[in-house]
Specification:
Blueprint (H helix, E strand, L loop, with lengths): L2 H15 L7 H11 L5 E11 L5 E9 L4 H26 L5 H14 L3 E7 L6 E7 L4 H15 L3 H4 L7 E9 L5 E10 L4 H11 L4 H10 L5 E10 L7 E12 L14 H15 L4 E7 L2 E6 L1
Antiparallel strand pairs: 1-2, 1-10, 2-3, 3-4, 4-5, 5-6, 6-7, 7-8, 8-9, 9-10
Length: 306
């Protein structure tokens, strides 16, 4: 969505679910959209996501750069990082929260060194505690991803050697950091496989970290036959020392879907998530959005749209 529709959409969500406004989100959107523009700025977009049974909204601001002279790319990165610093400073000042800005600075430095885009996100919840996020976009940059991943783990006291085996046969898509209001943080590793892939392997990974809800996973994987898919991936969360805490499956679609999603497969057609799916679908279309990603964690479906 463009910035005008994005602002209207956030206001509509806040009103519908009575979400508080700890900061001026219109101002944050302006900082992100206008502050990071440079000569090589290419694709810019706001992306949102909902997760079934959660009354919260996740906002992500994406920016990518065209190929071009090194000095222009560096200038683009400098502008982007400066805009993100302003957002962190503003949110911290307005909320009084202690986000780990030192960790964010290290992430910005690694992104500039590797010449990869930095994305920004935040989650607005009913408890008014705004969670912030950064992502380093590392698609087709496996060597940089492993180097940054090891550095982040060393900084956080996580044993990279213990967890890296999970990523050995996958391509990296991104590395994310969650910043919590109390100063805590968590690492996230996004890996992907081309589609179609070995679904038996997907199920095996799922069962290793989330043995429950096998029926829901089977229905979800069956539902995927209705879509044109580019990648299937895993999000691995690491917050405790050297342990993967949880796993989410995510699906990148080949093309955004503006006209609505197909109905749930038979066994789940009368479930609560089916009604939620229909409601969100209709709402997204009313604001001119299009579905770009799907996800599943436990028995909760996630929809991502721009």
């Amino acid at each position: 969505m463009d910035i005008a529709r994005s602002k209207a959409f956030v206001r509509a969500v806040q009103e519908k679910w009575r979400l508080p406004t700890p900061v001026d989100l219109d101002l944050v959107a302006d900082m992100l959209e206008k502050g990071g523009v440079s000569a090589l700025s290419d694709r810019r977009a706001f992306e949102f996501s909902f997760v079934f049974s959660e009354k919260s909204i996740r906002l992500l601001h994406l920016i990518f750069f065209k190929k071009g002279p090194t000095h222009l790319r560096l200038e683009g990165m400098r502008r982007r990082v400066a805009s993100l610093r302003r957002v962190f400073e503003y949110v911290s000042r307005r909320t009084g929260c202690r986000y780990d800005e030192g960790l964010a600075e290290r992430a910005f430095g690694w992104a500039q060194e590797a010449d990869v885009p930095v994305q920004f996100g935040c989650v607005l919840k009913r408890d008014a505690a705004l969670q912030m996020k950064t992502y380093l976009s590392l698609f087709h940059r496996n060597a940089s991803a492993r180097k940054i991943g090891r550095a982040l783990c060393d900084l956080r006291g996580v044993d990279w050697e213990k967890i890296k085996g999970e990523f050995s046969d996958s391509g990296f898509d991104a590395i994310g950091i969650d910043y919590f209001p109390d100063g805590a943080s968590a690492l996230k590793f996004y890996v992907y496989h081309p589609w179609p892939c070995d679904l038996a392997s997907v199920k095996k990974t799922w069962e290793r970290y989330s043995g429950r809800h096998k029926g829901f996973l089977a229905a979800f994987l069956s539902w995927l036959s209705c879509f044109q898919i580019r990648h299937i991936g895993f999000l691995y969360r690491v917050s405790s020392p050297s342990e993967i805490d949880s796993v989410k499956i995510w699906i990148r679609l080949k093309r955004p879907i503006p006209h609505g999603l197909p109905a749930w497969p038979g066994p789940l057609r009368r479930s609560a998530s089916a009604g939620w799916l229909y409601s969100v679908n209709r709402w997204v279309r009313s604001f001119g959005g299009a579905i770009t990603y799907l996800s599943v964690e436990g028995d909760r479906l996630g929809l991502y749209f721009r």
